[in-house]
Specification:
By secondary structure, this protein is of the alpha+beta class.
Length: about 50
């Protein structure tokens, strides 16, 4: 679908086999999301892919 351009204008994620449209992040959300991601990344290592 991405290659076909269907989702090229929207943020989307695949969660449990379902395509979910992602909300855009505002500044505080982006900060906390990146902070949590940075803390979890070394703990989870290869168990999860985080973006």
């Amino acid at each position: 679908m991405i290659a076909a351009g269907i989702l090229s204008d929207r943020g989307a994620a695949l969660l449990n086999g379902e395509i979910v449209e992602m909300l855009s992040e505002v500044e505080p959300q982006a900060y906390y999301a990146s902070t949590v991601r940075d803390c979890l990344r070394p703990l989870l290592r290869e168990q999860a892919q985080m973006q």
